[in-house]
Amino acid sequence: MDPGIAAAIEAGRSVIVPTAQQAAALRWNWARRQLALGCDVWSTPEILTWDAWLEARWQREPRLPALRRLNRSQQRTLWERVLHMQDVGFGSGEELALHAPALMQAAARATQSLLNLSRSAVSEEERLLATALIAFRQQCEQLGAVALPLAPPEQLAPLVDGPAPLIVGQPRLTPLQRQLAESCWPGQVLLHEPAPTAGAALPVQVQAIDLEAEVTACAQWCRRQLEAGDDRRLLIISCAIDPSLRMQGQMLWRALAQGTGPAAARDPDEGLLAVEGGEPLSHQLLIADALAALRLSSESIAWQDLSQVLRSAYVHFGDHRQASKLESALAEAGRAHWPQPLLREMLLGRCAQIPAAQTLAAWLVQAQEWGPPTGATEWAGRFSQWLKAAQFARSALHSSDAQRLMRWGELLDEFASLDAVLDALDSDAALQHLQRLASDAVHAPESGDAAITLSAFRGAPVARYDGIWVLGLAEQRWPEPPRPNPYVSLAEQRRNQWEEAGASQRLEQARWAQSQWQRATPELALSYPLREGDVHHRRSSLLQADGWSSAIAEAAVLEPYCDAPLHRDESLPPMAVDPGLALPRALLRLRLQQQCAFRSQAQTRLGAEPQARVGDGIDPRVRGELLHGLLEGIWQELGDQAALLAMDESARRALIRRHWSRLLASHAVARATGLGTRQLERERLRAEHVLLQVLAMDAARPGFEVMAREHKLVWPSMAGGMTLRIDRIDIDVHGRRWLIDYKSGQPEPMRLERGSAQPLQLALYEQALASAQPVDGLALLSLNPVEPGYTGAAVDATGWPRSVKSVPDWEEHRVQWRAELAALLQEHVQGRADVAPLREACRYCHLSALCRRGDALVDDENTELPPQERP
Question: Is the pLDDT of residue 555 over 60?
Answer without folding.
Answer: no
